[in-house]
Write a structure and sequence with these properties.
With 221 residues, the protein is an alpha+beta fold. The chain contains six helices and six strands, in the order E-H-E-E-E-H-H-H-H-H-E-E. Pfam families: E1-E2_ATPase.
């Protein structure tokens, strides 16, 4: 039996309802409770969309209902979605495609490395020719290693990290917190950010500002 204030203990096929309303915000993200009934639904309707199936974990806000348990324990839709969520979190940890900043950084490093090796090789060969292939070690150190080391931008990682940290700090003042600094540059080029609010709020949204053209007025006024 489902009564106001109780949660559905399992996935139930409703056989009787009396103005039953259930809070399904954990599935749909909708603020308003949905109406449920005991009538038969078309075959093409899924379990998540069927109004005659009360899913485990839903909160009854009003009305009453009776149902027959069709799924319990780990077989309920709540547990299935939890398992799917765990799988999604595991797969999301896999390294995805590199960001534009990473590609540009890699391209720049490859260019500098190629240029340094080319210059060092030419200098080393010229040094060998001028010394008649004598003092090989000195020529290698002074004409090859020194040029390569001199062309390596040692301060590039520090400078790049500091710049990204500054941008991330500015975004934090706008209540945007970055988990990865390497995506800051990509996010900085975005003009519109869209996200699903399901699962990231308290299902209690409030209008705090009313925007009229370019004027924003707090609703408290």
């Amino acid at each position: 039996m489902i009564t106001p204030g109780s949660r559905v203990p399992a996935d139930l096929r409703l056989i009787y309802t009396d103005e039953l309303k259930l809070d399904t915000s954990w599935i749909t993200g909708e603020l308003e409770p949905l109406d449920f009934c005991d009538t038969t639904v078309p075959k093409n309707v899924t379990a998540l969309g069927a109004q005659n199936i009360a899913l485990n974990g839903c909160l009854c806000t009003s009305g009453t209902g009776y149902g027959i348990a069709i799924r319990t324990g780990d077989r309920t839709m709540l547990q299935r979605l939890t398992i799917i969520g765990k799988i999604a979190r595991v797969t999301s940890k896999q390294k995805g495609e590199p960001t534009r900043l990473e590609l540009e950084h890699k391209r720049f490093v490859n260019f500098i490395s190629t240029l340094a090796i080319t210059m060092a090789t030419i200098t080393f060969v010229i040094g060998l020719l001028l010394t008649n292939f004598q003092h090989l070690i000195n020529t290698f150190v002074n004409g090859f290693l020194v040029i390569i080391i001199a062309n390596i931008p040692q301060g590039l990682p520090v400078t790049l990290g500091a710049a990204l940290a500054i941008v991330a700090r500015r975004l934090a003042t706008q209540h945007i917190f970055m988990k990865r600094l390497d995506v800051v540059e990509t996010l900085g080029t975005a003009t519109v950010v869209m996200c699903d609010k399901t699962g990231i709020d308290e299902i209690k949204t409030k209008r705090k500002h009313l925007s009229l053209t370019d004027l924003s007025v707090p609703l408290s006024e």
